[in-house]
Design brief:
With 67 residues, this protein is mainly α. The protein contains three helices and two strands. A two-stranded antiparallel ribbon has the order 1-2.
Length: 67
């Protein structure tokens, strides 16, 4: 859908071209759209990890935000 909306969003150059995108940051894609794409990608990768690894990452994240 985003590839149809923005000429700057194309199939991922180095990754699986079905699931990943490359973005020309000099184009018209808003910062908010890019942030949303990053957040969704992060969540997809995180969900594919084991629950143990997810907890480890959550602990690391909380350590960085409290320091």
């Amino acid at each position: 859908m985003l590839r149809e909306q923005y000429a700057e969003i194309v199939p991922g150059y180095y990754m699986n071209k079905v699931h990943w995108n490359s973005i020309d940051l000099a184009g018209q894609v808003s910062d908010e759209t890019i942030k949303t794409m990053i957040q969704k990608s992060y969540q997809l990768i995180l969900q594919a990890m084991t629950k143990k690894r997810q907890r480890e990452i959550a602990e690391l994240a909380s350590d960085t935000t409290t320091s």
